[in-house]
Amino acid sequence: MTGAGVPGGGTTYADAGVDVEAGDRAVALMKEAVARTHGPEVLGGLGGFAGVFDASALLGMRRPLLTTSTDGVGTKIAVARAMDVHDTIGVDLVAMVVDDLVVSGARPLFMTDYIACGRVVPERVADVVRGIARGCAETGTALVGGETAEHPGLMAPDEYDVAGAATGVVEADDVLGAHRVAAGDVVLGLAASGLHSNGYSLVRRVVADAGWALDRHVDELGRTLGEELLEPTRLYTRPCLDLAGRLGADLHALSHVTGGGLAANLARVLPVGLQAVVDRATWTPPAVVQLVGRLGGVPRADLERTLNLGVGMVAVVAPDVADEAVRLLAAADLPTWVLGRVADDDGLRDESTTAGAKGVDGGSVRTTGEHPAA
């Protein structure tokens, strides 16, 4: 049997399921959005083999440390595909990657992305990249390059996945983390915008088992279930970097609440011998979290180690600047409150205590109290 792509025989790349021209159209559609993330530090343009970033500004730093992070957005993509809405998932990608850099106090410099799909649909790929560019613009990150790979036979035609990597820089003296945290420090909770980009395997299972459609309007959410589940992850980059600039050495640590939940991620930025005591009574989890728990009969322990429960980032600050930190973040339209305090570790371990999370030999977190009724 002769190939369909060449008269008289032979098999073409198109016969194998790869549309090179579609990839070129996708690049053309995304080009303007990507260019808006470029400052004078970005040399060249879209389409090169590698992005080029002028790092001359780092010469003025005393001891610049480069930081790097990579991540994806998990199975939230399944919701985007089901809703056929693809222009927000890129914001989630930037949040997952760039806000991990900020935890160390680093300022993001540039980012690259990777999109794998079963079939290149130019408009869909461009929508994804527009979301990435939007997130990069909001965080001051240059989107300097990326790759769209078509994998026919490996992925179904409408399947895709996204990943990204970013690089940032921080002065060695300004690195945040466990080495700064002390007993008496105040733990602040920075509000999440929703479920962010973690725990969607649990959420999707609960929704499927309940037989709920994504276009179902949910009164307590004020919109459809699908719209709620696609709410983009909040970007904490600028507010947290501004907070570091205002508080200086009094900002001790940040923790991005992603996979593993609040306690596990907070424990990662505490030193051995100290324990953060977090009081549930200080906040009410968002309606979507309560809905998932109720709809699926999900045990509290599972909710707490899977979802952010309304806390997307945590700041650990010196006690005398806690009120100022809350005020500064509120002024940046970021609701913030006191979650608890850091104390000497009492050594007791029970179901309320989390320690040694994600392989980090650090401190512990004890979660107490009950959430107020909604």
Task: Walk me through this protein's architecture.
Residues 183-348 form the PurM-like C-terminal domain. This is Phosphoribosylformylglycinamidine cyclo-ligase. One of its GO terms (cellular component) is cytosol. The chain is of the alpha+beta class. The chain folds into two domains: 19-45 and 55-171, 60s Ribosomal Protein L30, Chain: A, CATH 3.30.1330.10; 178-368, Phosphoribosyl-aminoimidazole Synthetase, Chain A, domain 2, CATH 3.90.650.10. 31% of the residues lie in helices and 24% in strands. It is built from eleven helices and 15 strands. The chain has helices at residues 20-35, 76-83, 89-102, 122-139, 200-210, 225-229, 237-247, 261-267, 287-296, 300-306, 322-331; strands at residues 42-43, 52-53, 64-72, 107-117, 142-150, 160-171, 186-191, 217-218, 223-224, 251-256, 274-279, 311-317, 336-344, 353-355, 364-368. The longest helix is centred in the middle third of the chain and has 18 residues, at 122-139. It is globular and about 75 Å long. The mean pLDDT is 90.
